[in-house]
Amino acid sequence: MVALLAATLDLPLRQHNELLVAAGFAPVWHETDLAAPELARVRDALDYMMAQQEPFPAVVVDRRWNLLKANQGAVRLVEFLVGPLAPDAQVNLADALVGPDVFRPFLVNWAEVVRYFIRTIEADAASDGTAETAALLERLLSYEGVRPLLKAAAASPAPDPVLSMNFRKGEVSLELFTTIATLGTPQDVTLQELRIESFFPMQPDTATILRA
After folding, report:
1. Is 56 in the same domain as 92?
2. Alpha carbons 147 and 200: distance in angstroms, whole number
3. Which of 76, 97, 158, 169 is buried most deeply by CB count within 10 Å?
4. Phi, psi angle pair for 174, to nearest 5°
5. How far is it, in rounded angstroms, from Cα 67 to Cα 89?
6. DSSP output for 77-118
7. Backbone φ, ψ for residue 176 (5° rounding)
8. Do residue 170 and residue 119 come from a single domain?
9. Residues 42 and 140 in one domain
10. For the stretch 33-68, what's the b/e string if a residue is b when 16 or more beta carbons lie within 10 angstroms of its beta carbon?
11. In Å, what is the CA distance from 71 to each residue of 48, 145, 150, 178, 183?
């Protein structure tokens, strides 16, 4: 009955486990470290996808936007904007986007991008009900200017078909839009929560710069 309820409610695997535990049963879905040997084929697939995206950026993140993998296009973009990262640095892309000191100084349309992004984090927090996602949302909302931004009236929709991220550093302008992919039919909590975000040039000039 618990499994039937979880399936009917279309619960994510993590919440399915929590429902089982609350009912007095053991969890049935594993949460495997991405580096584990049994996930080697999945890692190969992720690496293949990111390699195909070169020279444009691509990253793999977990549910709370902790960076797990990045291709060379992503590394070059970040290093161009903010300088080299420390070896083995722990990067949270949500903090990097919303906070004041990483991407914000270079993101011309920061307000529009962050307004949309925070809504996705709110949806995540509502759907998974975990303290960790709630803490991420609260941390993002605590950054300067974010709460007033959400209360302000949204700007009129732009004529572009997708919302782009418009970076500018010196004389260089980069306009990028993103796609987010997930794994099909995952049977592991870690794999279900993976997101593969790929960045594409919005303008020919951006493509030329990234290829160079």
Report:
1. yes
2. 29
3. 97
4. -130, 125
5. 10
6. HHHHHH-PPPTT---BHHHHHHSTTTTGGGBTTHHHHHHHHH
7. -130, 140
8. yes
9. yes
10. ebeeeebeebbeebeebbeebeebbbbbbebbbebb
11. 10, 31, 32, 15, 18
Note down the domain range covering 13. Answer: 1-30
CATH of the domain at 37: 3.30.450.180
**Measuring CA to CA, how many Å separate 21 from each of 2, 42, 97, 158, 200?**
10, 28, 36, 47, 42
Contact, 182 vs 13, CB < 8 A? no
Tokens of 22: 């609350």
Per-residue pLDDT of the chain (212 residues; tens, 9 = 90+): 999 999 898 888 988 989 999 999 999 999 999 999 999 999 999 999 999 999 999 999 999 999 999 999 999 999 999 998 887 889 999 999 999 999 999 999 999 999 999 999 999 898 887 889 999 999 999 999 999 988 876 666 667 788 999 999 999 999 999 999 999 999 999 999 999 999 999 999 999 999 99
Read off the tokens for 71: 């291709």
Residues 57 and 80 in one domain: yes
Cβ atoms of 167 and 108 closer than 8 Å: yes
Return phi, psi of residue 156, to 5°: -65, 145
Q: Are residues 36 and 1 in the same domain?
A: no
Helix axes 72-82, 204-211, angle to 10 degrees: 100
